[in-house]
Specification:
It is a single chain. The chain is mostly helical. The protein has a domain of about 40 residues. It is built from three helices and no strands. The longest helix has 12 residues.
Length: about 60
């Protein structure tokens, strides 16, 4: 999930608002949780790699 999160603009926007500019006013992609499309959530929960293809799968 962490890798999926950093791929979206909201992650960098949160860093900008909290760490860089410190204005604490992020401009999120969606105005509220209820505005987040179901497909967006499903995409966030989808693994980036197929079974057995994760780069650390043999460690």
């Amino acid at each position: 999930i962490a890798l999926q999160a950093v791929r979206h603009a909201d992650f960098s926007e949160g860093i900008r608002a909290m760490v860089v500019d410190k204005d604490f006013k992020p401009s999120w992609q969606h105005d509220s949780v209820s505005d987040v499309p179901k497909q967006w959530v499903e995409d966030m929960l989808t693994p980036l790699w197929q079974d057995g293809m994760h780069p650390f799968s043999e460690l």
